[in-house]
Specification:
The complex is a heterodimer of chains A (277) and B (296).
Chain A lengths: L1 E5 L7 H11 L3 E5 L7 H5 L2 E15 L9 H5 L5 E4 L2 E4 L9 H5 L5 E16 L3 E8 L6 H9 L7 E5 L6 H7 L4 E6 L3 H17 L3 E8 L5 H9 L3 E6 L2 H9 L3 H4 L2 H16 L1
Chain B lengths: L1 E6 L7 H11 L3 E5 L8 H4 L2 E9 L3 E4 L9 H5 L5 E3 H4 L11 E3 L9 H5 L5 E4 L2 E10 L2 E8 L6 H19 L3 E5 L6 H7 L4 E6 L3 H16 L4 E5 L6 H14 L2 E2 L8 H7 L4 H4 L3 H13 L1
Parallel strand pairs in B: 1-10, 1-11, 2-9, 2-10, 11-12, 12-13
Antiparallel strand pairs in B: 3-8, 4-7, 5-6, 8-9
Helix pairs in contact in B: 1-12, 6-7
The chains are: A alpha/beta (277), B alpha/beta (296).
């Protein structure tokens, strides 16, 4: 079973839920797909066993063969190639690595070379958790291909938890696509509600069943509860705004390790989801 | 004209709370909400939309089933795994088996490889509206903002549209400053919201995650040569971590402008849909005023 954790808004507690959930289950794999700012490893402190390079392909022009006909530039939908009378310029930050330029070149002057956009790290935390996370290189813009690399490591024998990035755009889709269920983490505030509505729409498009975890319950107002009731979205769990929990978070300590009673609540939530599926 | 971007790396550290208050304190500015996939600034500034334009991001492939002979060449050529055989794999979203090859619009990046490889001319690229860009009036000044349609790509491009709109308005109105609310992360939309700005104000929080993400976003601003200053929000929830962040910034030669204490009044202001400096005259508001005085 693959369960993803998403939120729309940043900072609502996705990583908190992902990490504490992982610690409450057995035989788990946690994939941290927030490759721009991964944080799960801060809490799980894994022993890294394996680091893989993650690449996309980039065109390389053979200037001895190229006759500057310009067909590659005309074909590229991203304006990533500019052909001048005696020079071809490639803009790596615009290239999506689709390979069309190499296909259309009549002189076979374009080859595709791998370019590293980040790394995928894999390790173990305790006996129970395998952690896989991606780390996008500084200055790189394409998170989604790196997320695909992280997801190649999915082990179907385990309960897989996917920690998604914030937002509703392509990196989020890349992370949660293919999940059996999505846990939406929100806070009961106007920002939390607005962004929850957006991510609920994303899940309608992807047709992934979902439920809500309300984090920092007690702050803000009641509108998130009203919305969930109106939309028929189940509230799976509430985590109160608690100074102690916030303190553990700030120190990088998963709170289920400090307050073990929560492990049963997380495990119970997953039993409920399994039952529903 | 100067441009200041408020960013954070980590989400939920208080970017929008700060930007809304700066907007209330500033004079003669243009506001740009560059978080286009989960924008929240409008919830505090109540913009009245004056102009709305369609944003066409990436194109999307469409298969003409009457011409398709189901050879599968397009599926093999697509690097984004955006084409598959519904008869074999079922629908992308529902898993229900249907007939023939289909394009998954959420994976398609509109590159045109499938169009090129199809011998039957059965595939074309079509334009799609990926979102909307707005120019609005607020009581604090003109605001450029946008909403990316859900599950769309090209958020960086839409950020650039918002930036261009804000610059045009600022020139027309003779504004001195563009105040930019960024998105979390360090990737495509964040870089688009940072290019060419005069200053980045990085908002962090005294948590291990906050420190980790701060280091990465400061690497990004250094990579692009953008002057950065830092503010620690809710600094008093873990003062030992705040000291760590301060030391880290000193080592990097990055200035900390002023820290902001934790106060539930910030959430109360959000519920009241107001910038906190207008909602309450408190320690948080004073800190925000001092930050604004020092960065503008």
């Amino acid at each position: 079973m693959i369960i993803s954790i998403a939120s729309g808004k940043g900072g609502t507690g996705k990583t908190t839920i992902a990490v504490n959930l992982a610690l409450s289950l057995s035989n788990v794999q946690l994939l941290d797909c927030d490759v721009e700012e991964p944080n799960s490893h801060i809490f799980l402190k894994p022993e890294i066993e394996n680091v893989k390079s993650a690449c996309t392909l980039m065109p390389e022009i053979d200037n001895d063969v190229c006759d500057y006909c310009g067909k590659c530039a005309a074909a590229c939908e991203y304006n990533a190639i500019v052909v001048l009378p005696t020079q071809v310029m490639v803009f790596p930050e615009l290239c999506h690595g689709c390979g069309l330029c190499a296909m259309v070149c009549p002189r076979d002057a374009i080859s595709e070379e791998p370019r590293e956009i980040g790394v995928v790290r894999k390790g173990r935390s305790g006996d129970n958790i395998e952690l896989v996370y991606g780390l996008l290189h500084i200055g790189e813009i394409m998170a989604a291909p790196l997320i695909d690399h992280v997801k190649e490591e999915i082990d179907p024998e385990k309960t897989v938890i996917v920690d998604a990035p914030p937002g509703t755009a392509c990196p989020v889709i890349a992370a949660i696509e293919g999940s059996d269920y999505c846990i939406l983490v929100t806070e009961p505030t106007p920002f939390g509600l607005y962004d929850l509505k957006l991510i609920v729409e994303v899940l309608k498009v992807l047709k992934i069943p979902s439920g809500v975890v309300i984090n920092k319950a007690g702050i803000g107002d009641q509108n998130v509860y009203r919305y969930c009731e109106e939309e028929g979205i189940p509230i799976l769990l509430e985590i109160p705004y608690d100074k102690k929990i916030a303190e553990y978070y700030s120190e990088g300590i998963p709170f289920v390790n400090a307050i073990p009673a929560w492990k049963d609540r997380f495990a119970g939530m997953i039993d409920g989801i399994r039952g529903e599926l | 004209m100067k441009q200041i971007t408020i960013i954070s790396g980590k989400g939920g550290t208080g970017k929008t709370t700060l930007v809304a208050s700066f907007a209330a304190l500033a004079e003669n500015i243009v506001i740009a909400d560059c978080d286009v996939d989960a924008p929240d600034l409008h919830l505090l500034l109540h913009p009245e939309i004056v102009k709305r334009e369609e944003f066409k991001g990436l194109k999307v492939a469409a298969i003409d089933k009457s011409k398709c002979i189901e050879c599968g060449i397009c599926e093999a050529a697509c690097r984004f795994k955006a084409i598959s055989d519904n008869a074999r794999d079922g629908d992308f979203f529902t898993g229900v088996t249907g007939s023939g090859y289909a394009v998954n619009p959420t994976r398609c990046e509109g590159c045109g490889v499938c169009v090129f490889v199809c011998d039957q001319d059965a595939i074309i690229l079509t334009e799609r509206v990926s979102g909307y860009a707005f120019i609005s009036k607020t009581k604090y000044g003109t605001m450029a903002h946008a909403q990316l349609n859900i599950a769309e790509e090209a958020s960086g491009k839409l950020v650039t549209v918002v930036r261009n709109n804000s610059q045009r308005v600022a020139e027309e109105e003779g504004s001195d400053l563009i105040l930019i609310d960024g998105s979390p992360g360090i990737g495509c939309p964040v870089i688009a919201s940072l290019t060419g700005v005069d200053l980045a104000l990085v908002v962090t929080e005294p948590t291990m995650s906050g420190l980790h993400d701060l280091a990465r976003i400061l690497d990004v601003t250094r990579h692009f040569g953008i002057v950065s200053v830092v503010c620690i929000n809710k600094y008093d929830i873990n003062e030992a971590n705040s000291r760590k962040i301060t030391e880290f910034c000193q080592e990097r030669g990055v200035m900390i402008v002023r820290n902001i204490p934790y106060d539930p009044v910030v959430t109360e202001a959000m519920v009241a849909a107001m910038p906190v400096v207008e909602f309450s005259d408190c320690a948080v508001s004073n800190a925000i005023r001092e930050i604004w005085a020092s960065i503008q």
